[in-house]
Amino acid sequence: MAEVVLLTGVSRYLGGRVARELSTSGRVGRVIGVDVVPPTHDLGDAEFVRADIRNPVIGKVIATEGVDTVVHMNVIATPTFVGGRSTQKEINVIGTMQLLAACQKAETVQRVVVKSSTSVYGSSPRDPAMFTEDMGPRRQPRAGFGKDSMEVEGYVRGFSRRRPDTAIHLLRFANCIGPQIRTSLTDYFTLPLIPTPLGFDARLQFIHEDDLVRAIVESTVGTDEGIVNIAGDGVISLSQAVALVGRPAVPVISQAAGMVGGMFKRFGLADFSADQMSLLSYGRGVDTTRMRESFGFEPEFTTREAFDSFAQAVRESGDHLTGRSA
Fold first, then answer.
1. In 3D, which of 15, 119, 8 has the Cα closest to residue 67?
2. If exposure means fewest CB atoms within 10 Å of the residue's CB, which of 146, 157, 276, 291 is most exposed?
3. If one looks up domain 4-173+207-231+286-299 in CATH, what number appears?
4. Cα 95 to Cα 303: distance, rounded to the nearest angstrom
5. What is the residue extent of each domain of the chain?
């Protein structure tokens, strides 16, 4: 059993939920949540320490508290939620580098769990139907969250070489969705008019917010190692998703996509990054065999059910949801 768990990003919605679930589960000794700002939500029995993972002081927290398990959830997908792209990259890349450097020096750390993303596979017209964990992208993400995720995983691989005695579990999650969470994609699907790439109908995969929380908890208390894709069964097309939320679609030619995206971003309606536009054009699918056979995890929601739980909340609200950022 994990005795002392350090969890990053607890002031955000998903991090707070994991802290609450872990600390009240009876399956770990202590949970120490760290973030740069105090959380406004309930952390259960978790203890909060105000600390910035970009600062080497995080190493003192790990050493002083005798942390044996580190769960890294402070990898941020949407730049508008943290003040812009430069801050997002600094938190994701520099923060991960400093956190892993601290873990490397701490002899007490025995297990590291990292929340990653299927965005590392990119989205291109040459992609396979389903990516397995051993495959690489046909076209690497050149900017944004996808590139950050690749750099984060690069630091994790380096850490595993320097600390082969530490168990590492890297979870690549499909896009998270649900009735409470707010992401760049939920902002997109709640636009009054939804621009869709003309001539494309991408296949999308999702993981329900409840399943993401369960997966992180099970990884924290489990023994599985390596890389694993986490996604709900099946896929849903972009046109089906738009129909479920009940909003009109406006087909946009690719040459105009950047201009339309910039307009929505300028008015704070949605964040349109290059990797998101590629996803909406070409889609992405991942194989989840390892999730079941090695990790032993079974999502409660299929991709369609996860999206429908979000769409139902949108239809009931009749307006833009004010969910909590991931």
1. 8
2. 157
3. 3.40.50.720
4. 31
5. 4-173+207-231+286-299
